[in-house]
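User: Show me a protein chain along with its predicted structure.
Assistant: Here is one chain, sequence first, then C-alpha cells.
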Amino acid sequence: MLRHLLKLIWKRKSRNLMLTLEILLAFVLVFAIAAFAARSWQLYRMPLGFQHATVWAVTIQTGKDEAQKDDEPLRGQFRRVLEAMPEVEQAAFTTFAPFQNSDMRSTFQVPGGPTMPASFIEASDEAFSVLGMSLEAGDWYSAADDGAAAGAVVINRRFAEALFPGPDAVRAAVGKTFITSTSSSAEPERYRVRGVVEDYRRGGEFGTPSNFMFLRYSPSGTVHGLRTILLRLKPDTPRAFEAALQRQLKGVRGNWSYTVAPLSDLRASKHKMDMAPLMVLSVVAAFLLLMVAFGLFGVLWQNTTRRIPEIGLRRAVGASAGDICRQIIAEQFLLSSVAMLAGLALLVQLPLTGALGASLNWPVFFVAAALAMLIIYLLSLLCSLYPGWRASRLSPTDALHYE
C-alpha cells in the first residue's frame, strides 16, 4: 500500500511540490512557536533560588539629594525605623529588587584564566535571610569580612563552575579569589568567594539562568549608593500597610520619594511582559495556519476533482467508499510526513551546532518537534476529510462518465 501511494505521489510530483513546500513552511512556523513555548515551560519549572511570597520592595528615588556612598549610618537608621514596625520581620538593602528590569554586568576572571561575564548586585548581609535563600556550600558573608583585602561575594553554581571548572566545583570555589577583567591600567578589583547558592534568577521564572554574584555592602560605602529596601513582612499583611510604611520612610528622608510594591506584584507584571511575545507570535501563527489551511483545502479539493476518473476506475474494480476516503487522507499524511522530515533535517542543525545555545536544547527540540508534527498532522487530517468524503460518495458510473 505504501509503495503504491509513493508511486501515485511521484507521478504527480509537479502538483505536489508546492503543496509540500507550503506544509514545510507551516511546520517550521509551528516548530518555532512550540520551541518558544517549550523553552518557557522549561524555564518556569526551574527553581528561582529565592522566596518572594511575603517580601515587599521599596525603590528609592533620591532626586538631587543623591545617596552618599558612605551610607551605613543611613541604612542603620532605615533599618531601625522599619524593623520597629510590628508588620516588618526583617529589612535588607540591595541595588535592585527581583523581577525588575535592571541589571549590572561585568567580566571577571581567575588570574591567568579566561574572562567570564556575570551579572551582579550589591546586597547587605540580611538580604539572603529576607529572600529565604539557602546555601549549597560555604557561608554567607557577614561583619567578619569587614576590612578584608578582597570583597566578600556569594556566587551561584553556574558562575562557580565557569570560574573554577573541575570536579565538585561548588565546594572548590569557596575561599578562592578572582578579579575583574579590565583592559585599563587600573588595579583590578579582587573578590573572595564566601558561599555558593544554587541559583538566583532575578528576572523571574522566564529568565534565562546566568552567572550571578552578590557583592557585600561595605561599611565604608557602596558603589551605587542606597537604592532598594527589601522587607520581609508577616503573612497576610494587607496592601493598606503601604500608607503607614510611606509615613515611616518619609520620616527618615522626607525629600526622597519611595515606590512600594510587593514582589508578587512585580512578578505578575514581569510575567505579562515575558509572555507578551509568545502571545503575539501565537496570534500571528494562528492566522498564518488558517491561511495555510484554506490553501491546503483548496489544493486538495482541486486535486481530488482532477482525479475523479481515477477514483471511478477504482470504484469500478471493487474499491469501497472507505478505501477511497482512506487513500485521500493517507496520501495527504504521506505528503505531510515528507515535508516535515525535510524540515527536521534542517532544524536539527540548530541544537547540533548550538547556534541558539540553551534556548534550543535537545529536550526543547524534541518537545517542539512532537508538538509541531501533531499540529500539522491534525491540520492535514481536517483539510483532507471533506475532499476524501466527497470523493468516496461518487458512484462508479458518474465518475467514469465525468469530463
